[in-house]
Design brief:
By secondary structure, the protein is mainly alpha-helical. It is built from 1 helix and no strands. The longest helix has about 120 residues. The radius of gyration is 50 Å and the shape is rod-shaped. It starts with a helix and ends with a helix.
Length: about 120
């Protein structure tokens, strides 16, 4: 009976070894498949990586251009504000006094016309 158990253990050990070998073979096949898949993914991602790098460079260029344009607009608005300030000064110191003088001249002219009409009536 002992010999039978030893024989049975031997057969089961061989079956176990065969099962372990089959598991190892399937594991190696799965590892190769995963390596192939990883290589394929790497090849597929290389153009995407190049596109992303180019997009990042283009975005940096656009950002730089936008910053330069913003500085130019800021300088332009500062220049416009300065011109408006000097125009205001010109209006206050030249045009308004001139307008006042012209208004006074117009009032004197109207007054002289009325006075001449009044003198004509009186004669």
């Amino acid at each position: 009976m002992t010999l039978l158990f030893l024989g049975l253990i031997s057969v089961l050990a061989v079956v176990q070894a065969t099962c372990l070998f089959l598991v190892w073979r399937e594991g190696a096949r799965a590892a190769r498949t995963l390596d192939d898949l990883a290589e394929q993914v790497g090849r597929s991602l290389t153009p995407v990586q190049a596109d992303l790098s180019r997009a990042a460079r283009n975005f940096a260029g656009v950002t730089d251009l936008t910053a330069r344009q913003a500085r130019r607009v800021d300088e332009l608005l500062a220049d416009v504000a300065t011109k408006i300030g000097s125009l205001k000064g010109f209006l206050e110191h030249v045009v308004l006094p001139l307008g006042t003088s012209l208004g006074t001249f117009g009032a004197v002219l109207r007054l002289s016309r009325r006075a001449s009409r009044l003198l004509r009536r009186l004669r």
